[in-house]
Design a protein that fits this description.
The structure is a homodimer of 244-residue chains. Chain A is α+β, with helices and mostly antiparallel strands. Chain A has eight helices and ten strands. Chain A binds a DNA duplex (30 and 30 nucleotides) through helix 7.
DNA sequence: CGGGGGTTTGAGTCCGTTCAAAATACGTGG
DNA sequence: CCACGTATTTTGAACGGACTCAAACCCCCG
């Protein structure tokens, strides 16, 4: 919060490591040139906000490094962190731009990050000249929609414990180190309140659920690191909701 | 259920009333011809299923008349009806096609419907020749994503009663008759269990919430028709969650 | 060694669920 | 038009999971 924001580090789209795995992979050299010239880049400290709920959408954000979350918050302080956290290579804020709406959530920096900003004029220009880029965004948005719908289902039909197990699996695939004997170590990039906000619950409830999982030997939590002795039994946890 | 499925009624895309309000409005005459020639049309009775969860996606569905819902169901019988119900002019099943996934929900006919089917080959062909169509789908998918995210927020932060109030407002804008003195009459197109599935609760709980709303004079339920004496007070209900 | 933030624990409450029964609406045939 | 059987909706009582509020705890850092 109190830290100063370093000016744009010299990041170049052409040498960006994530380019080939992102939607921008379909751009021609010339279009890449346009993108590179019109982007601005910046370092953001944990806790900073990229955009606020109800803000008009000025463009999209490319995460070069770090982690960003989208939070929707209520008047009484309650909040949710929406499903997909934006890590290196992710694009952020495309939804309101493409839907022609304002931002419906606040983008909050969860870990110190380096982020590029691309103004909406540039995005529209690229979109109108290269249809393939639109198809890429279409795929991304459709995927995200599927995940959001899954989350709706989970919130109404799965217990808190199962939702946490589910989140763990997703996190493991992204941040975990999975050894071939089934043991897993995971370093969560989230505080407890944020973890709670991701599964739609209060920190206290999450804490209790965690204690039970530890008691059952499924997952051992110690601060932000999680030890899972047997990945299979974690998966079993997910599929055995409502059984005996 | 037991009724026979009438063969394709003679529906013509060129004379379709919904064309100009749907994503297809961007098609050229020639493309419309292609669409019209390759679609198949069919009447579906209430209770029928257009596609099942985990089915591969064979194409998309255009609702000409009626109402279709997407249901995700759990092993123990619990289920959710996802936000946007597909009525006349809506397109269905585009998400899995564009995301390259299987269907993640079951499409269930809620009211007798007439539906056109467009095979994925045709859709891909149209998409590749007319980028504007892709942009239309992009807008639709982005809107849907926003609504899904709103629903996630509601499920975790709003009481059942407020969620019902919220759904009522959405339904009123779509199916209700709103007279200028604030009185509203709404004919719900849903059974109680389906209404419950839309707000992520059990029918019994919905019934109780309804009783309270009636007791407070906010909305009077009688079967599937709802009488709202003052639309403003219904809106107030939504914004006053967690106050006193 | 003494804060201080983040995390855990505890006790009590509330909302929504569960299971079972009653009431109401609905469609059909007499 | 009414009687009957079925399906849907409502009600009731008991239960349970997650919440609230508050206090205790822990770990990290100064």
């Amino acid at each position: 919060m109190g830290r100063d924001k370093p000016a744009a580090p010299g990041i170049n789209c052409f040498t960006c490591q994530h380019r080939n795995r992102s939607e921008w992979c379909v751009l021609s050299a010339q279009e890449m040139e346009q993108l590179n010239a019109n982007k601005t880049c910046r370092a953001h400290a944990k806790g900073e906000v990229l955009f606020h709920e109800d803000d008009p959408c000025l463009g999209i954000y490319c995460v070069e490094d770090g982690l960003i979350g989208i939070r929707k918050s209520a008047a009484d302080g309650g909040s949710v962190l929406l499903g997909r956290l934006a890590g290196p290579g992710s694009t952020l804020g495309y939804r309101p731009l493409l839907a022609g709406e304002t931002h419906h959530g606040t983008a909050e920096v969860l870990k110190d990050s380096t982020v590029c900003f691309i103004g909406k004029d540039t995005v529209w220009d690229l979109l109108s000249h290269n249809p393939a880029l639109g198809m890429e965004f279409l795929r991304i948005a459709s995927r995200a929609l599927g995940e959001a719908e899954d989350e709706i289902f989970q919130l109404t039909n799965l217990s808190l414990r199962t939702r946490i197990a589910h989140l763990l699996v997703v996190m493991i695939r992204r941040f975990g180190t999975l050894s071939d004997d089934g043991r897993v170590v995971l370093e969560l990039p989230l505080s407890r309140p944020d973890l709670a906000a991701m599964v739609g619950a209060r920190p206290e409830s999450v804490s209790r659920a965690i204690r039970e999982m530890t008691a059952d030997g499924v997952a051992y939590f110690s601060g932000r690191t999680v030890n899972i002795p047997d990945f299979e039994s974690l998966l079993r946890e997910i599929h055995h909701e409502g059984h005996i």
